[in-house]
Amino acid sequence: MTKFHVLTLFPEMIEQGLSCGVIGRAVRHHIISLNPVNIRDYTLEKHGKVDDYPYGGGAGMLIQAQPVYDAHKAITGGRRVRTVYVTPQGRPFDQKLARELAAEEELILLCGHYEGIDERVLEEIVTDDVSIGDYILTGGELAAMVIIDAVARLCPGVLGNDSSASEESFHNDLLEYPQYTRPEVWQDKSVPEVLLSGNHAEVTKWRLAQSIERTGKRRPDLYEKYLQKQQLAERLAGDKRNNIHLTESLLRGRGEIMCALGEDAAIYDRSSGVCMLRASSPEAGARLLESCPEGVGRYLAEGEHVVTLLQERGFDRICEYSQYLYTQREPLPVRHKEIRRLGEESLAYICSRYPAVSQKYGRERLLAGAVYGAFRERQLVGFAGIHGIGSVGMLFVEEAFRGRGIGASLESFCINRLLESGCVPFVHVPSGHKAAEHLQDKLGLYPAGNHVHWLGKEGR
Ligand code: SAM
Fold this sequence. Notes:
It is a single chain. The protein contains 16 helices and 20 strands. It folds into four domains: 2-152, SPOUT methyltransferase, trefoil knot domain (Alpha/beta knot, 3-Layer(aba) Sandwich), CATH 3.40.1280.10; 185-220; 236-319, no CATH class; 339-423, Gcn5-related N-acetyltransferase (GNAT) (Aminopeptidase, 3-Layer(aba) Sandwich). The strands form five sheets. A seven-stranded mixed sheet has the order 10-11-12-13-20-14-19, sandwiched between helices. With 460 residues, the chain is α/β, with parallel strands linked by helices. The longest helix has 19 residues, at 200-218. The model has no long low-confidence stretch (mean pLDDT 92). The site of S-adenosylmethionine has 19 residues, from strand 5.
């Protein structure tokens, strides 16, 4: 659960402002937590004063360092917690930063007032200065609420499932397409015919075309980024099977290009925090690695050169996988009928049966609605899920229930979910796992050829 603490002189403004709608509901259901802290409660002044005149003169008052520092310390107790000072002088807030902040488990937002806050305490506690636009507000509360709203809706479970967030403006460097609701005709204006056709494929095509056209007209800067990704995806599609994880990440709007050298590339998949590398020479590998963001904990690497380079940098080879692709459009038959989406209550079960899934990752996937369970007479007997990078995995069936097609049904179920959302399903199978390889054959998936390697550092 993401925790938002807000250091403010007006806690009631934060409480009331975020008590309605989707965010209010998420707070009431304990999906996120909101903790407005009154800076005034920490002043040592007996009249509750927290501000004073600026040294050197000038208009207005400044919030003093001591109450801010003590209020901050009361929250952190000395722990390092990412602390955002909302200020017109900060990094412009955008969807990318919202995603970055949504990955934190805990955030502190510091709201200024009057002319701002004594610089010395900002130097001590602030990790990020963030602005919500080039204009001056009277206080930081509205800015903090804007940030909390945008970040919280990306936190797993807040929107119910992650598809609503994935289709909106900025998701894929594209603005959203136009939308219409009843009545069909309003003031002689009709809803575009294709939307009434019931043909989902045509609707998807039309929406994408509208998004592209709109982005080109309204936001040429975003459009340029979108084109770059499309072009790289096209180059990588020359070796489609081996590059499926890279192209899916780019085309589904999750991956950012860190570096592209012909058909070699480093792509950072921000939803999973994984950096994917494909290098055909040691020189390319070294250049790609230089472009990766600081602190990446997990790499998915293709090519021995880059694996060696990562090992030299202290990363361990966790597992080697073969990629398998499902290239048909037809959904697969699901013979076992009792398959349902699992919720957070299944976390302990999943982590105990599939130890490679950490508590944190398991919770995130469950809250994203991406893990499905197979039941037999109301008993959970197996599960499978869709990973953050878009592959199917986490397949497990209780020993007593193996050999009855439950695993095949679970994998088929996940593949069908991916097909519905327009993705090319792919599966990572541990190299040499005969039973898993056999299952892929049976379901009609093709092996990519090359292997990919997961690398990570212990403790991350
Ligand atoms: N004197 C400050 C300056 O020029 O940078 C502006 C102070 S402003 C009147 C008071 C507080 O409102 C700031 O400390 C900040 O917390 C908040 N604030 C004002 N405009 C903001 C913006 N565009 N983005 C984020 N916070 C803002």
